[in-house]
Amino acid sequence: MEIELENGDARAIIDPLGAWVTNLSDQSGDILFPKRLLVALDGNKKARGGCHVCLPQFGPGGESGLEQHGFGRTSVWEIEKRSLDMVILTLRVKEGNYTGLTAALTYQLSEHQFTMKLTVHGSAGMKISPGFHPYFSVLRGEEDVEISGERFELSELSNTEFRVAQEQTIELGNRTVRIWSKELPTWAIWSDQLGSYICIEPTLGGNMFQEGKALILRDDTEYSFAVGICW
């Protein structure tokens, strides 16, 4: 059953399957492209839209053998705490190489900001390189967008562009959206143009697993990663 958060005229919907934010909007319209299945050129259906966590890794799994963006977005998360404008969901891994990993996602909605905080605790030696994957809604038919003062042609973003910063801004029709993260400083900018969206994704370090890199967990240590979407 989906979870609905409200604050003023802002609204967020979260599906415990994947702890997936399926929609984020206010009275002016959608901020995130609403999640749906879209058909790719090869005929396969792709889940696109909203925002999901990438856990334990962003991007390809490399030698880990994990699927693209990990198992967080395909696992069922438990609701630990909930209020009108906040929810905490928890994932406790009980099988496979990540048995014992515990992750929590806190979603908090204010009138003009949506924050997402991931906390992770696991056994020493476990490897992670997390991120978040938001799909920002662009105007139908729009061919380019301005991100942090630079114009990007959507048709040229099928190959991901990476940049390092603490925040990004994007001009979306009648509003400017700012996305910030101190803990996830490498931003992936991407769009496959199956729908009217562009992805500006905060990550720990891009495709780290594919590059043989990762953050290695220590016992008795909790790791936190926060992201804010402001409009």
Please tell me about this protein's structure.
The protein contains no helices and 22 strands. It has strands at residues 3-7, 10-15, 20-26, 29-30, 36-39, 45-48, 51-54, 78-82, 86-92, 102-109, 113-121, 127-128, 131-137, 144-147, 150-153, 161-164, 167-172, 175-180, 186-190, 197-203, 215-216, 223-230. Helices cover 0% and strands 50% of the residues. The chain has 231 residues and is mainly β.
Tell me the strand percentage band: over 45%
Order of helices and strands: EEEEEEEEEEEEEEEEEEEEEE
What is Rg? 17 Å
Shape: globular
Structural class: mainly beta
List its salient traits:
seven-stranded antiparallel sheet, mainly beta, five-stranded antiparallel sheet, globular, 231 residues
Brief rundown of the structure:
With 231 residues, the chain is mainly β. It is built from no helices and 22 strands.
Strand-helix topology:
Layout: E1 3-7, E2 10-15, E3 20-26, E4 29-30, E5 36-39, E6 45-48, E7 51-54, E8 78-82, E9 86-92, E10 102-109, E11 113-121, E12 127-128, E13 131-137, E14 144-147, E15 150-153, E16 161-164, E17 167-172, E18 175-180, E19 186-190, E20 197-203, E21 215-216, E22 223-230
Antiparallel strand pairs: 1-2, 2-3, 3-4, 5-6, 7-13, 8-9, 9-10, 10-11, 11-22, 12-21, 13-20, 14-15, 16-19, 17-18, 18-22, 19-20
